[in-house]
Amino acid sequence: MRSRLKTAAILIVATTGLIGLVGCQAQAGSGSGQGKVVLNYYTWFPSEAILTKAIAGFEKANPNITVNLKEFTNTDYQKALPLALSGGEPVDIAGVQIDAMTNTVKDQLLPVSKWKSDLDPGIYSSIDAKALKQTANVASDGKLYSLPLGSIGSAVMFYNATILKELGMTPPKTAKDFQADVAVIKAKKPGILPVATAGKDAWWQEEVLMTLAEQDNPGISSQIISGTGKWNQPAMIAALQTYKGMFDSGILSTDSLSVAYGDHNTQFNDGKAVFLIDATWNDYYLSAAARKAAKNDLADVGAVAIPVMHAGGKPAARALTEGGLAIPTTSKHPAEAAKFISYMFSKAGVNTWGPDLVVIPSVKGFSLPADTLTTPAAVDGLKTITSLVLNATSARHSNQAFNNAVEGNSILDVLSGKKTAKEAADFMQSEWTSGRYPHGKQ
Amino acid sequence: MSTETTLRRVGQVPGRATSVARPARRRKRGPQLKSLLIACVFLAPLAVFYGIYYFYGFGFLAQVSTEQVSLSFLSAVNVGWDNFRLVLTDSIFQRSLLNNLALAAFSVFVALTLGFLVAMMLASGLRARRLIYTVVLLPSLIPLSLFATVFGRMLDTRDGAINELLRNVGLGFMAQDWIVNEPSAYAALGILLTFMIGLPVIYYTADLGQVNGSILEAATLDGASVWQIFRLILFPVLRNTHTTVIIAAVLGSFRAFDIVFFSTGGQPGGRTGIIGTYIYSSALGSDRVGFAAAASIIVLVIALSLSLVQLIFGRKNK
Fold first, then answer.
1. In sequence order, which ranges of A249-369 are alpha helices (DSSP H)?
2. Which of A107, A193, A258 shows the shortest C-beta gap to B177?
3. CA pair distance B171, B89, nearest whole angstrom
4. How far is the alpha carbon of B136 from chain A, nearest alpha carbon, in Å?
5. CB burial of residue B81 (10 Å; 0-12, 13-18, 19+)
6. Counts for chain A of helices (H) and strands (E), in that order
7. What pLDDT, in 10s, does the model give residues A6-20?
8. Which of A177, A276, B20, B124 is the Cys-Cys partner for A268 at CB 3.0 to 4.6 Å?
9. Would the ipTM clear 0.90, i.e. be above it?
10. Dihedral of the CA atoms A267, A271, A274, A277 (nearest 10)?
11. Which three-class secondary structure state does DSSP give residue B217?
């Protein structure tokens, strides 16, 4: 009995020791060992495959630094990073969703001014000043906390250039063109969906609605989200009516209202939809090589702005910088982290993630490899999208809580005929000012 | 009341049983204390764990509920009772709470009727008993999120299995926007909850085995019909099981987040949302954690109140 107890005690002590040792080792993993610095990089973007390539390039150029990548999915990351930082996890480089996360984590990040001098020479000045200003403006205190990899915008429209060519059509520019194109597709290609869009997700409803609103009233989205404009102003009610009109006129189909964002791509990917209302983070559609890598068999894809719905309106999109790279206040290696960030903005770095076409890089003078876009539809498409993003009429800001609880549902109520545009707009305004959804500069 | 009676009650009548009983009590107290001590030693780690879990957790929640703060929990602004006021006056919260109660009532109804009947059928020596058991229990064993996601996809208007099936059998006119229409969205949730009768069936089946067979024999000899045996004997005899089933169904409805979130997603227009989906979406966005914490505390108070009511009624019934 005694020997058994002794054995048990030894086992417990040994196990505890082992756990302690592993724990210590894990801690050491975040610091430096044998002169080698280990950086922990938490992010959701760019993709793991792209980042693995970028990290390999950085480590080759900096043999004394190792980067451990921890990649999350988009929505998980919004909760994972703040909790990781609050919980004291050793994060050295943090990817920041600029609109959705900056104000949540800014108190745990070093302002860029604190590590700007650690960046390689010329890196900071190579980033577009407008992109830096836009990123700084997102923070409630107006400080710059991350360097943005690029910009994204929405909503835009991709099209299956092969089908359009077959039907002898050109991409629509106005509501009238759009309606005519949809009628032709319905008549000549009965098994094909004219326009694929998503209606189930609140955030996507806002993207489409605000794009329509911006066509007639540039800047309206920024006014409302910043608290200087009202949700129930006539222009917003008109935008709601315009959006509803797209369903009433048959351009959009009500069966898309139960389609989740992401699922709407399926039919387009399979060649069973002609137009796809989406965002610029899916610009990969324009690259034949990227489509092939994504196992997408579409032969040719182009992109245009969402057709202008009213006479006098202009093509529009909201856009904002995205993919911020930041250094947490708890990082023990800010200088090395800045070195990695420098690499990401260097020519070698941007050539790794830039051709991915998720963002329009904020590095000045970046150009895609010549063989990325191979058709006139793709070349023109990217030109149009780049112009829309760089000349965005409003920042792609959103109040996530309001959007989830009130805005998305109100838009859906209008589209499904449960509320008039005015009723929905009045409800949004009353909720907006209820105090439940903090907005504007706090 | 006589003095003797009083003294007897307090054990002070000389020469009676009390004087004999005292040494006996003393003899028992030693081992009892030792047992108590051992029990305490074994329970202490668990008590400490739960103590920390509950008191720290609820304490933290209570503190955060009075603040306007983000997930970083830094730079919190004290807003007092404001978050509670904002939650309680929110029409979306009120609707979510009503939905919760409606789902709870529906779950209880289904469990007490369909669940009870299925359990009776299974207990009556049906041939395909095992197959029916498997079919009934399977949805309760599969992760709810997966089950609800698959069901949600089936409801898709454009290419969902239900509409596809209707179109293929020539009933395309019946295909509709299941989630976009309020009645069908509620019906979809009702169907999902109905699939969850597996647990009530287990409870009933287990307790049916404890019913004294002679009662049923006597009833049969007295000429009672099967329906009368179900209605007048088995249903009342299993009243403790009903209580367990009701509590499980009511509390289950407060945890029906995955059913709603992954099937209707609260649609149409947030009308099928419940407290769980409300709290989840409340926590998203900046500076909203305090608001979500206040909503959680209100729900906690409601759930505890329901349990208290059940306890009071349970004692009265006993």
1. 264-269, 288-293, 334-345, 347-353
2. A258
3. 45
4. 29
5. exposed
6. 20, 11
7. 554 444 444 444 444
8. A276
9. no
10. 40
11. helix
